[in-house]
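dumping this here before i forget
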Amino acid sequence: MFFHRVITGFVLLFITGEEKLCRVRDTPGLIPREIWEFWTGYYCYNYSNNYRLLFKYNVTRGKYNGSTIPLARINSTTVVPFDYRNSISRSCIRESFKTDHFFQMWVDCCEEAVDCCDNFMTNDNIQPNSEYPCPAIWDGWSCWGPAKADTVEKMKCSTQAYSTDSDVCELMSEKTCFANGTWNQKTDYEVCAVAPILRNRHTFNVIMLAVATVLSFPAVVIFFSFRSFRKNLRLIFHRNLLLVIIIRNLLTIMSKEIIILDALESSESNHVMDGNGVACRVLAFFENAAKNGMYACMLADGFYLHKSIVRVFADEPNIIYIYAIVLTLTFLPSLIWAITRAVHEGTDCWMVDDSSNDQWIPDGFRIAILAINFLLLFDIIRVMAMKLKRGNTSQQTKATLRATLFLIPLFGVHIIFITNRNIVPSHTCQAEDIYYYLSYVMEALQGVMVAILFCYINAEVRGELKNGFRKFILYLESRFGITFGKVRDIHRRPTAATYC
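structure:
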């Protein structure tokens, strides 16, 4: 490593006739290229977020070719430079980081500093001038170009500023060049805090799921309350789908409130997610299974609806077999996922995707369900269109075709349009907010739309409710002698949702 720096220095001297210099924050004057790694390695280490470190080495000073450099004091007799290219330095400094990922972030910071000095800074832009009194500078995380007086420069936030390991949306850090032509040594990275943005998203998701649960639950109660509904296979499928959606909503709310929001609100690493306990992993398993169950119920509901419209004279499916298939599709992918997560020693309560790609196990299953449901919906529309084309334009056929257009929530086809985050052309946080808020609304509305279309505005359900209410009024009149006026007979009138 010594020869690398010496050769680099000689090459620069030969080409330019002068020694290569670069500018870093807090250090008076300019730093020669041959000791640049030492100083920037120190700054990258010193400004590493504390949650990434098990402990932090004390710093002392030493000499290197006559120049002062910072040194990490390993023990009472050993010091090493902050040189990411030196194997001994790397080994010692790695011990102070919690994970290889956090250590690699330090290495990345050092490499970016070297790139800033070698490929961005020149003998011209590192010196202040009348037009750009604030020269190019490395602030410890980012490489800033020259700036005019009394201006605020903006740059994409360095990955060092983020408190999350996963990919985040783009935010802009700010650095001020004062009116007197000097830099504010402290760059404003507070605007890079992504936790408040994620917290707002998850809070919105929790609110939407809670509202959807409240609006959907009465439909489940109605389906369970009447004997005729408990024997109607079509309504049984609708009821089960709603019930699983509500369970999914409740488990998602629990995981976000207890684990995810707890982690986002904690500045330290003593939160539930960091503990990776058994209880939170069990919650993650059942939440994953509930999502699978929702897709399995969508498939069962879509299959029965396809049978009712396309294969009218086919035998009724055995409900026991349907339940067995749904349970298998619910738990089998989640069991495989949980086993692979355990084998790969998954962290973060299994609620954060990692590089093992284990999440593709349940995701692949769900994509397959969506693809099958899409084909079933397409076939239903094809058959109904053929009936209309042949002149079979009965009111029932037309009503069923219109109702089919509202079956997207039942089949879950809308989810296809929100599964790929890359549909957002920009990676700014504002653009991603639009995507996430829209996807959370669509996710919550699925259960609400199923409840509205197949329960609240369904003529069969409304007729049964009116009939039940009439019987209740008659009971009160006969039992207590209370007169409520004439109760008219209720006649059922079919609607589009009745045939779905």
